[in-house]
């Protein structure tokens, strides 16, 4: 019972701290003068992906055995899988729910369907504008070849393979530079930011308050996420799940919970661009930084379960890219991405047995 209570408490703590984090990170982006999309792809993604990267770093550098080091390899593969499937799926489901509520509210108030589809888009309308879809597709096109190389390296062995880890750090540096430099060529739309939680009465909060709220919420997210994962590890065997199933199936969702919570909060606030940017930016970090650490400090050799996770991740991204290329990315089709995680779970049964 204690584990279940702590699981709920840590999940609530993650959600509430993410509410404060997204509030702070938007003000941080304004203070640093970066574009709205860079707030999602760089600032928010870096903050929420930092705990998982630290876990990978600790596992691969301090693990006493190869099994302990391989925990970091599993984390490096599980993170992108959860983001490409569950995180995008939850975002699509939230968009469906939000749009249908908006439409129902307008119908109830006026008795007529909404006349402005930009303000009250239907559930079957596209997730965003053509420009938004193009930008999201560009991020996925960056991610897919990097991830393909990452998986391919897990199937081969050669003397200088560890040094290739440096190339993954370089790939993220190029992505980071592109996002920061390209962050200002957006629509030029200005959105009024919500008051900073630390200074709710200030029209323009002090910079120290913005930084303090960002760091404080990140600390809570980090420790609450670790507590959540530990409770899952304890509860898994209680409900009949093996340790390997818990590690491969439940832990990735737990470690990516901050990104999922951020997406829920931003969609609820009508900031779908930031929700999707946070996920795609976190995916780029997960595809490069933990992978580079794994290549440098482990043998980076995949078993069947890790290979299966890599194949499912790539299948989910290809599905999204094809849907975006056909200009048919609706909330319902985005929600379908979560089905790939179900497929992954079903495929694990014969692999682990």
General description of the model:
- The chain has 353 residues and is mainly α.
- Helices cover 76% and strands 0% of the residues.
- The chain has helices spanning 2-32, 36-62, 66-110, 130-153, 165-182, 207-238, 243-255, 257-268, 272-297, 304-325, 331-335, 338-352.
- α4 packs parallel to α9 (272-297) and α4 (130-153) packs antiparallel against α10.
- The chain is globular and about 65 Å long.
- The two termini are 29 Å apart.
Structural Rg: 20 Å
Shape: globular
- Helix content percent band: over 70%
* Strand-residue proportion: under 5%
Mean pLDDT value: 84
> Which parts are unreliable, with pLDDT below 50 for 5 consecutive residues or more?
none
* Helix-strand sequence: HHHHHHHHHHHH
Helix/strand-derived category reads mainly alpha
Structure summary, number of beta strands: 0
Q: How would you characterize the largest beta sheet?
A: none
Total number of helical segments? 12
Please report the distance between the alpha carbons of the first and last residues: 29 Å
Short key terms for the protein model shown above:
76% helix, mainly alpha, 353 residues, 12 helices, single chain
């Amino acid at each position: 019972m204690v584990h279940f209570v702590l699981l709920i408490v840590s999940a609530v703590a993650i959600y509430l701290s993410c509410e404060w984090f997204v509030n702070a990170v938007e003000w941080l982006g304004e203070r640093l003068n970066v574009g709205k999309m860079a707030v999602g792809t760089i600032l928010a993604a870096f903050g929420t992906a930092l705990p998982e990267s630290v876990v990978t770093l600790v596992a691969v550098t301090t693990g006493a055995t190869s099994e302990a080091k391989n925990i970091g390899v599993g984390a490096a593969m599980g993170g992108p899988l959860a983001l490409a499937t569950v995180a995008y799926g939850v975002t699509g489901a939230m968009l469906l729910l939000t749009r249908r509520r908006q439409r129902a509210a307008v119908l109830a108030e006026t008795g007529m369907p909404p006349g402005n589809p930009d303000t009250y888009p239907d559930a079957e309308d596209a997730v965003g504008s053509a420009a938004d879809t193009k930008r999201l597709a560009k991020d996925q096109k960056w991610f897919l070849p990097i991830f393909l190389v990452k998986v391919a390296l897990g199937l081969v062995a050669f003397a200088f393979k560890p040094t290739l880890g440096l190339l993954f750090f370089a790939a993220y540096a190029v992505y980071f530079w592109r996002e920061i430099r390209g962050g200002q060529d957006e629509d030029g739309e200005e959105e009024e930011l919500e008051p900073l939680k630390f200074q709710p009465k200030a029209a323009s909060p002090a910079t120290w308050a913005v930084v303090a709220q960002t760091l404080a919420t990140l600390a809570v997210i980090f420790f609450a996420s670790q507590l959540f994962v530990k409770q899952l590890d304890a509860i898994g065997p209680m409900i009949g799940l093996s340790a390997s199933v818990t590690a491969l199936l439940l832990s990735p969702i737990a470690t990516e919970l901050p990104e999922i919570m951020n997406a829920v909060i931003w969609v609820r606030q009508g900031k779908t661009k930031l929700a999707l940017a946070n996920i795609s930016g976190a995916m780029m970090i997960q595809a490069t930084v933990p992978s580079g650490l794994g290549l440098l400090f482990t043998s980076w050799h995949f078993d069947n379960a890790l290979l299966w996770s890599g194949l499912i991740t790539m299948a989910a991204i290809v599905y999204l890219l094809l849907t975006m290329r056909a200009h048919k990315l609706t909330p319902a089709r985005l929600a379908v991405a979560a089905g790939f995680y179900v497929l992954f779970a079903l495929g694990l049964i014969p692999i682990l047995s």
